[in-house]
Amino acid sequence: MTHHLPARRGAAARRATALASGLAATALLVAGCSAGDDAAAEDTIVVSTFPFGVEEFQEAVIDPFTAKTGIKVEVETGSNADRLSQLQVAGDDSGIDVMLISDYYAALGQETDLFQEVDAAKVPSLDEVADFALEDGYAGPAYSYQLNGTIYSTEALSAKEAAQWDLYGDDEFAGRLALPDISVTAGQLMVSGVGETYGDGPYDIDTALETLGGWAPGILQFYSSSTEVTNLLTQGEIVAADSLSGFATDLVASGEPYAWTPPATGRYMATNRAMIPAGAPNVDGAHQFIDYLLSAEAQTKSAELVGDLPVNPAATVPDSIAAVVGDIAADPVAAGYSTLDPAELVPTRGEWVDRFAREVTAG
Known about the structure:
This protein has helices at 12-25, 37-40, 54-69, 80-90, 103-110, 159-162, 185-198, 205-215, 226-234, 249-253, 283-293, 296-305, 319-325, 342-345, 349-361; strands at 44-49, 72-77, 98-102, 115-116, 142-153, 177-180, 219-223, 240-244, 258-261, 269-277, 309-310.
């Protein structure tokens, strides 16, 4: 019997029209995405991935995969939204075999069946990865994850102070703090952390927005990129910001007085997932790539060169990452981190983004 990863397909029909309209509005064809004969050949796959760290990913994963299997990899890049838009427009003719994409966008694509389920029988490495990488709700496994917490100046704050959500409402630091906009990954994790800490749970949007709105006058900036927040910190304009742990890696490695800490409560993480589009021309090659991507070998090199937190517990976590997150990388769930349910986020996303703009950042 063939085994598959579980995937939730809830309310696809009801939201298909709205999704198509939203994606079409931002549709952007990624250069080189035409599906030629080579893409369908057994010795070639097309991988769509993020636009950053591409050279490092090539060295860590793609080149060793090709050396091991003989399968060549063509890489296409773009933002989550742009690449999902391209897939929506192209449908089964996208020519993409594997899409590496963040969890929310993976769930969004599943609502209109843009992805097929990964066949667990064809990916032996699935037996090695952490349980959270295989959670119900996604057609493909997580291959890395991102932890939310606070990046801060060790000259201004102690780790204990930085771990408290109350920091962002502290008058002593008013005007010297930053928070993410809800549109970025850290933003949703922050909203859920605040909702859990001060309200009824991670989806208590009313309490979260009321709390954040109360803090907003003392927040210098609601940022939308990692560059923004690290620049604010290194230029001395802020002393702390809610951020993903990966933002701190280079800063901590530099030896400058910066650190990152998980929040005392409301710990949430996001995942990046390996998905196979419904019209993938080389499904067998796609499964082989995902199997290698999840192996301890690839996970170790990806952590070392790309900075990805590994989902395979057998992978070695480099000192550069351990210096930021400590033992959390060994088992984030044991450290109190949880993932968010896509079934709760996808239907409410538009409403929450609009409310965040009105109730938090508008003032």
